[in-house]
Queue: 4 jobs
Job 1
Amino acid sequence: MMNCMVIGSGIAGLSSGIALHKAGHRPVIFEAYGAPSDGIGGFLTVAVNGFDALDTLGLKGAAAKLGFSTPLMSMYLGSNGKHLMDFEFGGSLPDGTTARTMTRSELYGMLREEAHRRGIRIVYGKLLTTVEESHHGVRAVFRDGTSEHGDIVVGADGLHSQVRRLIDPTSPAPRNIPLLNTGGIVPAGVLAPGLVDVEPGRMKMVFGKRCFYCYMQDPEGRTWWFANPLQRSSEDPSTLDSGARKVWLSKLVAGDRTIMAAIVGATKDIIRPYTTSDFPSIPRWQRERLVLVGDAGHAASPSSGQGASMAIEDAVTLGRSLQGLQPDSISEALARYEDERRTRAELVVEWGRRNAAPKARGQFKRVIEDLVLPAVFRGIARKSEDNFDWVYRHHIEWDTANGE
Ligand SMILES: Cc1cc2nc3c(=O)[nH]c(=O)nc-3n(C[C@H](O)[C@H](O)[C@H](O)COP(=O)(O)OP(=O)(O)OC[C@H]3O[C@@H](n4cnc5c(N)ncnc54)[C@H](O)[C@@H]3O)c2cc1C
């Protein structure tokens, strides 16, 4: 049994703690924030590959109770309301489980409860600053002057990971994607009955004249939406107060032939817009007793819809790679984990970047692209439905770890 120090208690950190516990080790999770991040963040979608990985951890049932099923997507142009294409969001698992949209906080809360239930300790207010390595293990040193000794350090510390820097100080910085992210949820009964022109569970994605956005309805009648305005050097919408944010966004969706202006107008708390980033590739994911999981190693653009699912896949692969291992074979096991995960993770990052590209057009290019997009989507439709099977039909067999 190894003592595993997991740095960060986001989706990747909690899932890793649970997977390492399943693998027979003793994980402790150290989080920089002073308290759990309940209620923080917007919403995300867990795709079917994420559910498959959760199933391995015994958590598919609990996760399937969160949020609502979103198996379908439709693409439209905002300028003329033209329908471009319908997609399935990854299909379903054999038991019928589909992609689900949920608040980050719900998913986080479920994983945190589960970690507690399994006796995994989470320590708050512990910001990792450095590590001291020796033949006998590794010491994690925190900003408050304390330190802990263990067998490995798992860097689940997100996009600006300190563990990544400790593994390789030459690791590149995150790559900016010139899109902002914002969104909100309109309670049931606020919008006029029948106004929302999409059935529950279908995401309506719109290439608007000035901004890409998506809205959907849940079975309770709430309207969930996000928008990806272009990031411009001349403005910083993250500094706007809530009222000014509404004015700014209303201007961006005005004139589109959709109901987005009404949705924005009806949203009480619009999420503060923030910038998005990803990583093309980093030189190493692991060194000796240090290893990366989740956004720390391979952040994908939110346009991939895969960040949480990939973090959970990492956790499962790491857990099974370390199952039954003794401390003297850690570095081989971590190298094997990187081998298994790197190609897939990097393909997903590039896929996310390609998904984001058509959203990041100025108004002039938008006009040209509105002429081209219908043909592009007709081409995609012709290429068969299994286009994205490599993303969604991914299964990690827990019992074949270590080449058995
Ligand atoms: C707008 C947006 C939309 C998204 N939509 C989707 C989606 O549709 N589907 C999807 O699957 N994913 C989506 N994602 C991505 C997803 O939320 C993340 O990729 C996923 O949750 C993995 O995060 P993580 O745990 O690796 O990192 P994080 O959530 O960033 O967690 C890192 C944790 O580490 C802590 N930490 C950082 N540094 C230290 C330190 N030095 N010491 C101790 N603790 C530290 C932080 O406080 C934090 O709690 C989206 C992301 C964004 C931004």
Job 2
Amino acid sequence: MMSTFVAPVDDILFSLRHVAQADQVEDWDDATATDILKHFGDFAQNVIAPLNATGDHEGAQLADGRVQMPAGFTIAYQQLIDDGWQGLSAPQAYGGAGVSVLIAAGVSEIFSGANHSLQMVCNLVPGAITTLRLFATSEQQALWIPRLASGEYLSTMCLTEPAAGSDLSAIKCKAVQSDNGWVLSGEKIFISGGDQNLSQGIMHLVLARSGGAGIGGLSLFLCPSQPAARVTRIENKLGLHASPTCQMLFDQASAELVGEEGAGLKAMFKLMNHARIDVALQGVAHASHAAAQALRYASERKQGRTVEGQAAWLTDHADVRRMLDEQQVLAIGARAMCHIALVESQLGSSPSLVEFLTSVCKVVGSEAGIRSADLGIQILGGYGYLTEYGMDQIWRDARITAIYEGANGIHERTLVTRGLRSGSGAEEFAALVTVLAEGDSVVNACVAHWLSVVEKLRASDNPDTQAHAFFDLTQELLQRAVWLRIARVARHHSDAEAIHWLAATVLQPVVL
Ligand SMILES: Cc1cc2nc3c(=O)[nH]c(=O)nc-3n(C[C@H](O)[C@H](O)[C@H](O)COP(=O)(O)OP(=O)(O)OC[C@H]3O[C@@H](n4cnc5c(N)ncnc54)[C@H](O)[C@@H]3O)c2cc1C
């Protein structure tokens, strides 16, 4: 049995429709969502997923200064753009399909489950379009958004430098204005898709220093691919072998300022916030894929005896069932959180709540993917440790999600500092949890306790030391509330009994 990807279309629709109640959002169209997710699911299964293992094996290569993607990737990309998937959520005025962000999130999850490496290279585009719409001039929008929506161009996000990883205030890449416009000089590292042979061009969004020290000296620049912005090396890494992680040299590369000078980080945050929920969904995708693979394997492998003494399938063993259940809980629960956060962001009434939820989802989603893949390896036993079934690739590819787009520890720290101090995100979070739980007495008691912890942390001089513990408390609370909602709407799922069972494992855990 080789790795086979089955797009979890029904689970995604169940989560969007019934758990996150997507119909609260004005542009939600149920029939369109069903149609698009089914079509993309077929495309992912037939075109993208078959390249996942071969891409991992072959990897992206740097030859004569240009990145070559593994065999089959250029053809798949051509199909992707011919079918209009790159412009799915771009406005129709710019040649996109203008579909809801919620549908695009479902597509993105399927894409990541089928082939995370290719998704990485293609899926910075929606965030880049949002950033251009918010900060670029109308001329820049008119020129660049259609190029991105059509797939003629892909985009990158160029932040990291050797001495500026998590701490972007240390960025050195320099932007200087001359008579001919801005030029960029400096080095960037770890840039996903810094070059590839899929699109005709690349639009790099670069954070560079146009002013003095610190964050206020950073501006955002749009830098089209050109000889002066070249890849000097691609990294060898644990996973995502088909996603080129590039070291780039900007050597007097001409660029355009996007937005106001000195407001680069603010603009980049728009792109990063989009990418953070997308990373959470990458985790969900891995959690779900690993769960499906493990269930299939465990249902087909005979090993040992049942308590009645009959030949047993792996699924007959209580401990294997426990692990399979945990995988499902991880995938369904984290997906629900992401969808709830996305619905809140589309409703637009609580920006601080969305910011709070984004950090929670980033950590929960990424940890879910890694943990589920790890459980998958255990369920497959020795075969999980081999490469034959692809569980190792899911684990290796998932592992980065806890590191990029803000390492998880930084998100936990953000929650306990900015998350509690700016706006009313914490209070709105408590209100959301209460609504999801609909009067559950355990949740009500936990919310009261959680709010008292919030007050203590707000008064603390050094809340950092409590960040991880506070995150655990927060995610346990959200997890319980989300599963109460899932249990209440389980009847809408094609396997309502299974959903009720999983909800029970969360809501009534075995305590001895
Ligand atoms: C496959 C891959 C793809 C990537 N793609 C891109 C891309 O497209 N564009 C881009 O710009 N970058 C990209 N990156 C870079 C990525 O975002 C950084 O690796 C990440 O921000 C961490 O920076 P660092 O590696 O320098 O680790 P460091 O900043 O040195 O941090 C190391 C560890 O220390 C801890 N830590 C650091 N600071 C803090 C803090 N303030 N509070 C708490 N804990 C902390 C965290 O646990 C962290 O994991 C990519 C990286 C990889 C590996």
Job 3
Amino acid sequence: MVSENTEEYLEAIWVLEEKGQKIRIIDLADHLNIKPPSVLEKLKKLEEEKLVTYNKNEGIKFTKKGEMGGKMVIRAHRILESLFAYLRIEEDDMEKLSCACEHISKGTVNKICTFLNHPETCPHGKKIPRGECCKNI
Ligand SMILES: [Zn+2]
Ligand SMILES: [Zn+2]
């Protein structure tokens, strides 16, 4: 099981990767609002856990395992946003709630996804990675 802190990193890397640019330490530090030396330290741990690779030329990249982890967190975040939008929860609370709840289990995310009829994008128009529940539709 990955720690919540690790999940925050995986989520941030996913979001930065979506932009299609090389991810530098400074980009991740800015995004997470954490000082670059702390980010570098954490990256070493993520590399040990084989979740990411990092070198100056390539920047930060997901391994297959890291990408799967990032996908799960992002999916939970965006499915929850969709649920909160459905419930007409205000934007401000939406962000706070999604951050607090995104560590819920995959099974719960799939149940919400099914309830919402498997939305393809979040209320911000960002792509929601597909889950097992979205197959056969
Ligand atoms: Zn969103
Ligand atoms: Zn689904």
Job 4
Amino acid sequence: MITFDNVTKVYQKDWVALQDISFFIDKGEFVFVNGTTGAGKSTLLKLIYKDEEPTKGTIKVLDQNLRLLKKKNLPKLRRKIGVIFQDFKLLQDRTLEENIAFALDVTDTPARDMRKQMLEILTYLRLSHKKFSFPYQLSGGEQQKVAIARALVRDPYILLADEPTGNLDEKSSQEIIDVLLDINYKGTTVLMATHNLKLIKKVKKRMLRIEDGKLAADQ
Ligand SMILES: Nc1ncnc2c1ncn2[C@@H]1O[C@H](COP(=O)(O)OP(=O)(O)O)[C@@H](O)[C@H]1O
Ligand SMILES: [Mg+2]
């Protein structure tokens, strides 16, 4: 599902962010990407959704060699990959429902299916009673769930979470991890980047450990 073959990423001519990284992630896996700040976690995720290009090496995502992927086919690939971030990236002047509908607008989903899908996901995340709320009326944990809902509504094959618990307290962090584990249980491949080793130690899942841009452990 995701293959990195001797991938190196150099920023600005000489800043090596990732060096000679190789791994394979199978369909349905849940993988933590762990490392201290600046280790290269976000870069690794960005390479997967082609927000950055590798300097060397080959990346394959969903059977596509990203280097050979034509620009016009990139949106099609991105539709299959959900991404969530530490700072949620919600539209502040839109309700929760509108935030999610916005993600559906860019797909060709008919309006009727759209509403149905949206309600299903909001109910699943126990947020349906807040669908007319604005982001500022929600807690951090709830905002992250909206971001998750927005990613899920497009029914992605892969969900990338970049420090999704970075702005949350311990309880909300645990809740978000539980949601991600459940999404994975239902079949989505999930990669979650975090510097917080304590948070993920309890969860028995594969971990790619990045140290100074190198793959220090895959366990
Ligand atoms: N666009 C960029 N231009 C130059 N350097 C960058 C860029 N993005 C990240 N870096 C550098 O690459 C390294 C890895 O960054 P990043 O992948 O964001 O690490 P992490 O997510 O683990 O904190 C850091 O030293 C960072 O400063
Ligand atoms: Mg990062």
